[in-house]
């Protein structure tokens, strides 16, 4: 029984690790180590509820734990994020590819958002969740989740204005 | 509120001019009146997906996960043990503080009942019993005082009859014979005779 449980759990984690890790990374504003810690913590919690959620939606459970922990983490100042006036310099074109540069800018911009706004934006635009599910995941009213997402996007518009170019 | 926020965002986000602007008509969002995301939002979503770099779940992650599970299991066990210890300690303390002498803390006898209640029955015997003993001493006391008076009054006649016994039987002699029962007083003290005589005559 325990073996079966462990096998299923391992299979799930191995299959979804990449996606979940990217989600954690976006939720932490690109902090790789913090993202790993957060994901580990969420997956450990998943292990103890695996018999209950295995047949339903284990990924939704992990997403909820991740998002809530990320939204809380800034209040605890776990990774000591320090807001700065100017975004870090964009790397030169020869240093890294354009995709990496874009990703770096995106993560830097996300890191400047308040954690709840960041979580709402990520859940809505990366996970493509409707407002209701964003609210449920964050454990707040729908209006609050909508407000967080809107404010976060508005802020990202400022920060990423030169990255997301106007289209013709 | 959301529109205001987006309007604010539009001010900062709009670039270029005319129809080429990204948010020419304002940024319709999925949560707004229109569910159609604007270009910025579409691009943002695309960028978020594109920025994903492949990550493999390796042995290092597996080990860390196992260690985390073990640590959490230990923490749970410790919490459970601490809870049990606290519960036992609380129970022990409660038992320790529980009063041992039950008679001390036992509530006293039921409160006084109303006079009309069946209380008279239990109160009857106590009232009669106190009166009983006094009556018994009274009988003895009446006997005792009477006895001296009789003995003191009669011996004179007894002595008189005994002294006059030689002369012959007299009505007083027959009477003295019936009273010969307490003769000890008679022989006891001759000095009492004068007083007894006086009392008899008196």
| Helix share, percent of chain B | 55-70%
Low-confidence stretches of chain B: 1-33, 127-202
Tell me the overall shape of chain B. elongated
Measured as a percent range, the helix fraction of chain A is over 70%
- CATH topology (level 3) name of chain A: Butyryl-CoA Dehydrogenase, subunit A, domain 3
Counting DSSP E segments of at least 2 residues, the number of strands of chain A comes to: 0
| Second CATH tier, the architecture of chain A | Up-down Bundle
Name the structural class of chain B: mainly alpha
Quote the average pLDDT of chain B: 59
Hey, which two chains have the biggest interface? Answer: A-B, 48 and 43 residues
Tell me the distance between the termini of chain B.
Answer: 132 Å
Strand content of chain B: under 5%
Whole-number count of domains of chain A: 1
Count helical runs of chain A. 7
Class by alpha and beta content of chain A = mainly alpha
- Tally of helical runs of chain B: 8
Oligomer: heterodimer
For the report, how would you describe the main beta sheet of chain B?
A: none
Q: Compute the CA-based radius of gyration of chain B.
A: 61 Å
Pfam family, one (chain A): Sigma70_r4_2
Family (chain A): Belongs to the sigma-70 factor family. ECF subfamily.
InterPro entries (chain A): RNA_pol_sigma-70-like, RNA_pol_sigma-70_dom, RNA_pol_sigma-E_actinobac, RNA_pol_sigma70_r2, RNA_pol_sigma70_r4_t2, RNA_pol_sigma_r2, RNA_pol_sigma_r3/r4-like, WH-like_DNA-bd_sf
Organism (chain A): Streptomyces pyxinicus
């Amino acid at each position: 029984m325990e073996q079966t449980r462990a096998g299923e759990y391992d299979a799930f984690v191995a299959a979804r690790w990449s996606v979940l890790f990217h989600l954690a990374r976006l939720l932490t504003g690109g902090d790789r180590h913090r993202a790993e810690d957060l994901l580990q913590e969420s997956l450990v919690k998943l292990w103890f509820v695996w018999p209950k959620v295995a047949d339903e939606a284990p990924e939704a459970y992990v997403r909820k734990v991740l998002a809530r922990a990320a939204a809380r983490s800034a209040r605890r100042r776990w990774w000591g994020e320090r807001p700065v006036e100017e975004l870090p310099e964009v790397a030169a074109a020869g240093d890294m590819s354009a995709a990496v540069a874009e990703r770096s800018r995106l993560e830097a911009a996300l890191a400047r958002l308040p954690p709840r706004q960041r979580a709402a934006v990520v859940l809505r635009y990366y996970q493509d969740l409707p407002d209701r599910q964003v609210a449920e995941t964050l454990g707040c009213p729908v209006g609050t989740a909508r407000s967080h997402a809107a404010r976060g996007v508005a802020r990202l518009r400022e920060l990423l204005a030169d990255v997301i170019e106007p289209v013709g | 509120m959301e529109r205001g926020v987006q309007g604010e965002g539009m001010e900062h986000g709009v670039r270029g001019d005319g129809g080429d602007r990204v948010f020419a008509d304002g940024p319709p969002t999925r949560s707004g009146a229109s569910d159609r995301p604007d270009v910025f939002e579409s691009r943002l979503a695309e960028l978020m997906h594109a920025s994903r770099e492949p990550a493999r779940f390796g042995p290092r992650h597996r080990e860390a996960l196992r260690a985390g599970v073990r640590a959490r299991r230990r923490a749970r066990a410790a919490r459970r043990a601490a809870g049990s210890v606290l519960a036992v300690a609380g129970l022990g303390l409660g038992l320790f503080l529980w009063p041992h002498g039950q008679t001390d803390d036992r509530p006293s006898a039921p409160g006084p009942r109303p006079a009309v209640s069946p209380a008279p029955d239990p109160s009857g015997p106590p009232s009669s019993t106190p009166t009983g003993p006094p009556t018994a001493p009274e009988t003895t006391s009446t006997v005792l005082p009477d006895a001296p008076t009789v003995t003191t009054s009669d011996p004179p006649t007894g002595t008189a009859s005994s002294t006059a016994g030689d002369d012959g039987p007299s009505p007083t002699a027959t009477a003295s014979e019936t009273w010969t029962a307490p003769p000890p007083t008679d022989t006891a003290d001759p000095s009492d005779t004068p007083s007894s005589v006086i009392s008899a005559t008196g």
